[in-house]
Specification:
It is built from 11 helices and 11 strands. It is an alpha/beta fold and 409 residues long. The protein has a 3-stranded mixed beta sheet, with helices on one face. The longest helix is centred in the N-terminal third of the chain and has 31 residues. The N and C termini lie far apart (87 Å).
Length: 409
């Protein structure tokens, strides 16, 4: 039994490799399982031996050798106590092989004490006290061994500790303030180490760096609670009811009577709170109080459907302003709009190139313009800002950057 425990501990102490990526700690549970079965065999043999001697009913001790018997029992008792002391300091760590050997040492100690009691009683002619005590020891050892075997089987089956899983779920929810949700949570124990794998669903408006920072805080809090753990999270974007959050808000706002268009939806996350702003277009003849009622209803609906919203701002504008959505127009149409703005400068500004593309639902427009080389930089900067503002007035959901350079450059 001790040899099996030694081999299992030696095998489990090896570091992870290509074939055992989670380590070799399961070998210790396997060794503990075998040790548990051997303890049951030992308990059965003790019971059979005691029962056979009770049935025979004859004295089985040579009292002429009583002194030698006491010396042998004291020597054995010292060894058993030493084993209990050495193994007892580590048994609480639930190293299964160590625990099996501890139970073995405990059974040896009990056997020695029973033998000591029986030997002492035998000197007074009582030969059956230690036999009945041996039967009691056999029953206790069998009970402990079965419990130990069952626990080893549970650990080998990769059962997820319920209390540990509950703590992990609580930390994810508490640390993220409800912003992040989880799915595909996987928890397993290998030795004293807990392995945690999960997919964290972050709001699609949250930046990757911010989502990563929150995930790191969750990991640190789980480590604080569990101790030795290996944690890996996969972060994925998440919308609302299966839709992108911006499109979901657009649908909400567009559904109210009187709203003809929704654009420039901006969502920001700060200190775990969400701030939403959007522009709506309504009939230019609509009274302000009616338009304000529509805006209030939109705000209430956003609060009710999007988590952790702290503020909602709705900008109201008339629908008779010519406006194109940057996320919907083509690159060619965007070029035409830029050219129409620059043409109003009567040849004082020329276009070198226009670079436009879509990212994160917004139209990005980069414009390189050519001006006379003698134009003061203050005036050149003013022209660049004018072009940016005029393009943004004509195209919603757009970011415009104008670069100016002298002719001939």
């Amino acid at each position: 039994s001790t040899l099996i425990i030694f081999v299992s501990i030696w095998a489990s102490s090896k570091p992870p490799d290509e074939n055992h990526m989670y380590g070799h700690e399961k070998f210790e549970y396997l060794g503990g399982l075998i040790g548990g079965f051997m303890l049951i065999i030992l308990a059965i043999s003790i019971a059979l031996e005691a029962a056979s001697r009770i049935i025979v009913g004859a004295p089985y001790m040579n009292m002429n050798l009583s002194l030698i018997g006491y010396i042998a029992l004291i020597y054995t008792l010292i060894i058993d106590l030493t084993r209990i002391y050495v193994l007892g300091s580590t048994v609480n760590d639930f190293a299964p092989g160590i625990k099996a050997d501890f139970y073995h040492a405990l059974s040896d100690l009990c056997s020695t004490l029973i033998a000591f009691l029986g030997f002492w009683l035998s000197t007074y002619g009582i030969f059956y006290g230690d036999l009945f005590a041996s039967l009691a020891l056999s029953g206790l050892l069998t009970f402990l061994s079965i419990r130990f075997i069952w626990r080893s089987i549970i650990e080998l089956s990769d059962i997820a500790p319920k209390e540990t899983v509950t703590k992990i779920r609580e930390e994810i929810t508490k640390t993220s303030g409800g912003l992040l949700t989880y799915e595909n949570l996987r928890v397993r124990r290998v030795g004293n180490k807990i392995f945690v794998r999960a997919t964290l669903r972050a709001p699609d408006y949250m930046g990757l760096e911010e989502a990563h920072d929150i995930a790191t805080k969750i990991e640190n809090n789980i480590l604080r609670v569990l101790g030795d753990a290996d944690i890996s999270f996969h972060i994925e974007p998440s919308g609302v009811k299966g839709k992108c959050t911006r499109e979901f808000i657009r649908e909400i706002a567009s559904g109210f009577k009187g709203v003809t268009d929704v654009h420039d939806i901006d969502i920001a996350c700060h200190d775990g709170k969400v701030h939403v702003s959007l522009h709506i277009r309504v009939d230019p003849r609509m009274p302000l109080n009616k338009a304000h009622e529509v805006a209030n209803k939109i705000e209430e609906s956003v609060y009710a459907n999007v988590k952790n919203v702290e503020n909602v701002f709705v900008h109201i504008e008339p629908s008779n302003i010519e406006l194109s959505r940057g996320s919907l127009i083509s690159d060619e149409e965007m070029n035409r709009i830029v050219q129409s703005v620059i043409e109003k400068y009567d040849g004082k500004v020329r276009t070198k190139r226009v670079v436009t593309y879509l990212t994160e639902g917004r139209r990005r427009v980069n414009v390189e313009c050519i001006l006379d080389e003698n134009v003061p930089i203050e005036k050149a900067h003013k022209i660049a800002l004018e072009i940016e503002d005029k393009v943004k007035e004509m195209v919603s959901e757009s970011t415009v950057t104008v670069h100016v350079e002298p002719c001939g450059n």
